[in-house]
What we know:
The chain is of the alpha/beta class. It has helices spanning 17-28, 43-55, 70-84, 110-138, 154-157, 163-183, 201-205, 208-221, 230-243, 258-261, and strands at 8-11, 32-37, 60-64, 89-92, 145-150, 187-194, 251-254.
Amino acid sequence: MTFPKQPVCMITGAATGIGAACARRFARAGWAVAIGNFNDETRAAAVATEAACQDDGAPTLLFDADVGVDDDCRRAVDKVAAHWGRINVLINCAGTTRLVPHADLSAIDDVEFERIYRVNLIGMFQMTRAAASLLGETATQERTSSVINISSLAGLNGTGSSIAYAASKGAVNVLTLSLARSLAPRIRVNAIAPGMVDEGLLHHVLDAQSYDRIVARMTETSPLKRVSQPSEVAELAWFIAAQAPAITGQVIAMENGLLLTGS
């Protein structure tokens, strides 16, 4: 079988937000892009992301994967392997949350913790494990393969949509360090920890009025008086993957200065 020559970027949770922006960024750079769809609710958005990448001239492949299910992760990697024969970059972007005030301890239980961890942490590990062999085989002496985990400011300062979400992202940061050690030298592993990102997870779990209030509050709180856009996270992911061969085992915060405020 003859495979196309473009490098391949595989992205989970690529239907909307940061994942979709990453797909577009790599597509514009001429990469082949494997676009991960989480479930039936996100399929239409994933198809739209695929169409946009095709408009940018990129070869595309749409795959379905609930990353919390190990068999889904393995099937997704097998599909990419059969289609393109390699994975140069894996971006673990699939995530979930629910807004629960941190002080209301009785409002969150073990079921919610396990639901959040199943996607945000275990799913990230399972997808990386499934792709690790092919990532390693794809790497060359001149060009390592790369895993980029989408973390959160919540994992650095214990804020965010819920205690379970913050804890899951803190665990993602440690997972990133462990994987970076384990998968070197052929595979680099890094994490990006954004602060508030417009059209991110909260956009999908809140009504419009509540969401606008949070954006306004985060804009005012930030020293830079702004929130980030998905395209900005995608640009950093692109830099890490394509332009930063010496960077591994790092959790890179991009939070408009919120860490300076202790917020």
